[in-house]
Amino acid sequence: MDVAHHHPKVRRASAGWAWDCSCGGASCRTGVVSFSWREAVISALNHAATLAP
Ligand SMILES: [Zn+2]
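Above: query sequence and zinc ion SMILES. Below: predicted holo structure tokens.
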């Protein structure tokens, strides 16, 4: 598992919070439009900890 290339950044979205990553991953690609801030952070960490597409 290589998390070095995953640096998702939580950002404000129109309807809450979202994240996107330099690898091209983004929360919107997980099927979720927006999160609460806490959910966005957890989801972003999740992305970094797994080899999400
Ligand atoms: Zn990534």
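The chain has one helix and two strands.
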